[in-house]
Amino acid sequence: MAERDGSGRKILGRSSSENPPVVSSTTGLPARPVLGRSSTGAAPSGTGFASEGLGNGRTGGTAVAQRHSRKRRPRKRTIFLCFIALVILVPVGCFAFGWSQFSKIPTVNVSAVLSPRGSRSGTNYLIVGTDSRAGIESNDPNSGAFLSGEVSGSRTDTIMVLHVDGSTTRLTSIPRDLWVTDPATGQKGRINSTFASGPSNLISAVEAIGIPVDQYLEINFVSFGRLVDAIGGITIDFPYPAVDDQSGLSIANSGPNHLNGAEALAYVRSRYYTEMVNGKWRVDGTADIGRTERQRVFLTALMNEVAGERNPFQLFAIPGSLGAGMKRGSTFSYTDAIGLAWALKDATPEMVVLPVTPRRTSGGADVLDLQPDARAAISGLAA
Q1: Do residues 126 and 113 lie in contact, with contact meaning Cβ atoms separated by under 8 Å?
Q2: Does any domain span residue 233?
Q3: Which of 123, 288, 289, 329 is deepest in the core (most CB within 10 A)?
Q4: Strand pairing partners for 98?
Q5: How many domains does the chain have?
Q6: Is the pLDDT of residue 257 over 80?
Q7: pLDDT per position as a tens digit, 60-113
Q8: Which residues cross the membrane (predicted)?
Q9: Cα torsion at 123, 341, 352, 250 (round to 10°)?
């Protein structure tokens, strides 16, 4: 039943069951309703105003937190996915870049003459430095290290065998004047002359003295210098000032000296190494033995520089900087190169000296013969 006012008229819009409006005691007007709450003062249930965040109840705060959480989740997911992509793509990119550079190195097919593995656990790398002058400019300020003497064709100036067996590394330098039988001709001659019939013939000559060969690497004078320059040079500690007019070596001060490519080559090639000792020049009387030791010092310094390179792109760019002056055996793969670099990280190879006896042939050539006890030294390279 509808309510009536004081004059007896009906009050429209409200039934007798509804509560009368609350009137302000100060203004005499009905009080304004509070959004999100009924006239009885109870908060509405369900999805009323409070669920939209307009009320002051717990439901509204939870909804806001949920929306913020939904906004944060995609951002965290994006960051996580980007991190995973970097972790995967950067190494893959470095590997691919390195492989592209490595694939530029020409190959030499020597697989037919490489030694069978048998029961050997170690791996021998035959490293050959040739005296090819192709690509060297005569106006190079360090050309003396390359262009001294008249040379036609290409011969081996340096022959080294690097033996790697787990954490054990050994290095031996085979004297180029070693008197051997040429596998191609059957004639006696210096071992460096066997290279004239090709790398396979040189490998066979090395194997004939009892040293197995598993992998082959060759580098000429030009690429040798580029390799050293690509890593920013190497540091060699000289006990005394040293010179060699034949190779172009000129070291004015004792102590650590930082060498560029041409200077490093002059140091490695030096056969008339002369030092200033107590104010007097003294020629190194150890001949090829001293040269072998200097080659070991150089190779150790080179490996330490490469191992210390922290820029992966700079490291993987090294093979590409060598040009066609470096060659690798057809069986020497990119993974082999990575494995070798890892094995040589912070390594200091043990020097293996081949005992030799100098003599002069009937034709007047100064050569070296292996001594009988050289077998003991060679056995360490055949394990």
Answers
A1: no
A2: yes
A3: 329
A4: none
A5: 1
A6: yes
A7: 556 555 555 555 556 777 887 777 777 677 677 777 777 787 888 889 999 999
A8: 78-99
A9: 150
Residue type, 265: L
Residue 138 covered by a domain: yes
> Alpha helix locations (H) across 331-370?
334-343
Give 158's Cβ-side CA count (13 Å radius): 30
**Strands, DSSP E only, in 87-225?**
107-108, 123-130, 156-165, 168-173, 179-181, 188-190, 215-220
pLDDT of residue 137: 52
Residue 90 lies in a domain: no
Calpha distance 153→140 (Å, rounded)? 21
- More confident: 238 or 337: 238
274-277 and 242-244 as β-strands: parallel, antiparallel, unpaired? antiparallel
Range of the domain at 161: 107-379
Cβ(51)–Cβ(59) below 8 Å: yes
Determine whether 108 is exposed, middle or buried from the number of CB atoms within 10 Å of its CB (0-12, 13-18, 19+).
Answer: middle
CATH of the domain at 372: 3.40.630.190
**Domain-located, residue 153:** yes
Least confident of 20-24, 84-88, 270-274, 357-361: 20-24
Statement: the pTM of the whole predicted model exceeds 0.90: no
Q: In this structure, which amino acid lies at residue 130?
A: T
CA atoms within 13 A of residue 251's CA, in its CB half-sphere: 32
Pick from 338, 289, 290, 343: nearest CA to 315: 338
Concatenating the DSSP letter of every residue in 229-291 gives HHTT-EEEEESS-EEETTTTEEE-SSEEEEE-HHHHHHHHH-SS-EEEETTEEEE-TTTHHHH
